[in-house]
């Protein structure tokens, strides 16, 4: 991951620095000697962002900037002087929490936010931008052949998302399309990464939406759990993948980032084997789900991306839940 990218080491900006994925990204960047400007809506909120100051090299090389994705001036102040930008911030709702106004709460910050970040990058003369999209922007595609793995040529169907009220997938798909549209018009060098469900230890103090998925399968012994696809990637592998895309000059286009494709029932069986003392679902419902394709990360792997064994991730996830006392709450 060093190689020809070392000339790009200097100052970079990470949007939404205190979030789950971004915190691991900031940690990797600081450990590699980058100076990092992080954006946060409230940098002084200890609960949300206090962990960032404790990262190795943070006291010398991390500076937080207060800004919202809809605040162009705030974004510019954070990005000016940076050679690279990692656009990570975007609303990620917990699927159990009702989103009253999805256009305002999800779509606008994701889409206008992406446009504002890229506009600020252009103004500041940034060399390269890595945009964190999602496999949510690849996978909801009813026209994709059933017998073929999903690769980077697959785009989620926006109209289908609207009709099924799949607002998160809609927000991520329109935001990524916006990024490519902007890059085509402006000539800005961008790469996008599309991770599947991200799991693994948390650096922040409160649990983010995707960290709760596995916890829910280990609590309560529910019946009739939907046996849907559960493609996943370890947050630490994802953070390294994001930096790899930044450092590799040959990285171009979209990159799916997913280590394992398995169904919920298989995942539960693996957890049950490793941790027999928890309360697992007692029955599963087979569903003909639209997301029943496997994701193909070959393009990212061909750049040198590697990932941890599933067992290691699952052990670390459960240890992390215990340390955060999440089984009790
Ligand atoms: N976790 C997954 O399974 C997964 C999978 C695929 C892709 N992704 C993508 O990865 C990125 C990070 O997700 P995550 O799991 O780390 O979620 P997270 O912990 O909830 O972090 C989201 C970040 O976005 C920021 N944000 C949200 N709305 C904002 C707004 N209006 N203005 C400014 N900042 C805003 C939040 O800032 P505050 O701290 O100020 O709230 C937070 O830092 C997102 O782009 C997400 O779509 C995640």
UniProtKB/TrEMBL annotation:
Q: Which domain of life is it from?
A: Eukaryota
Alphabetically ordered keywords of this record: NADP, Oxidoreductase
Instruction: Respond yes or no to whether keyword NADP is given for this record.
Output: yes
Q: Which InterPro entries has this protein been placed in?
A: Epimerase_deHydtase (IPR001509), NAD(P)-bd_dom_sf (IPR036291), NAD(P)_dehydrat-like (IPR050425)
Alphabetical list of CDD domains matching this protein? FR_SDR_e
Coiled-coil annotated spans? none
Ranges for domain NAD-dependent epimerase/dehydratase come to: 12-251
| Keyword Oxidoreductase on entry | yes
Annotated GO MF terms: oxidoreductase activity, acting on the CH-OH group of donors, NAD or NADP as acceptor
Name of the protein described by the UniProt record: NAD-dependent epimerase/dehydratase domain-containing protein
Q: Which organism is it from?
A: Daucus carota subsp. sativus (Carrot)
């Amino acid at each position: 991951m060093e190689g020809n990218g070392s000339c790009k080491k200097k100052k970079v900006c990470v949007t939404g620095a205190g979030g789950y994925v971004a915190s691991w990204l900031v940690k990797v960047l600081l450990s590699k000697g980058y100076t990092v400007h992080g954006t946060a809506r409230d940098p002084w909120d200890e609960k949300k962002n206090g962990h960032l100051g404790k990262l190795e090299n943070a006291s010398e090389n991390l500076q937080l900037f207060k800004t919202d994705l809809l605040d162009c001036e705030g974004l510019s102040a954070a990005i000016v002087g940076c050679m690279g930008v990692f656009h990570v911030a975007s609303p990620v709702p917990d699927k159990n929490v009702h989103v009253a106004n999805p256009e305002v709460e999800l779509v606008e910050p994701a889409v206008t936010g992406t446009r504002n970040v890229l506009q600020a990058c252009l103004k500041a003369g940034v060399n390269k931008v890595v945009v964190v999209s999602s496999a949510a922007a690849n996978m909801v595609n009813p026209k994709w052949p059933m017998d073929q793995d999903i690769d980077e040529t697959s785009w989620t169907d926006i109209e289908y998302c609207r009709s099924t009220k799949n607002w998160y997938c809609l927000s991520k798909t329109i935001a990524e399309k916006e990024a490519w549209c902007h890059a085509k018009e402006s000539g800005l060098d961008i790469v996008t990464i599309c991770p599947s469900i991200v799991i693994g230890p948390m650096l922040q103090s409160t649990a983010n939406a995707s960290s709760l998925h596995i916890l829910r399968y280990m609590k309560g012994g529910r019946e009739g759990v939907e046996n849907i696809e559960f493609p996943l990637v370890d947050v630490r592998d994802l953070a390294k993948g994001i930096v790899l895309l930044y450092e590799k000059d040959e990285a171009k286009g979209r990159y799916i980032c997913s280590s394992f494709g398995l169904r919920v029932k298989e995942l539960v069986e693996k957890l049950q084997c490793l941790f027999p003392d928890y309360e697992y679902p007692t029955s599963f419902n087979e569903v003909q789900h639209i997301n029943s394709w496997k994701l193909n990360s070959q393009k990212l792997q061909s750049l040198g991306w590697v990932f941890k064994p599933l067992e290691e991730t699952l052990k670390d996830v459960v240890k992390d839940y215990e340390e955060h006392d999440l089984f009790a709450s």
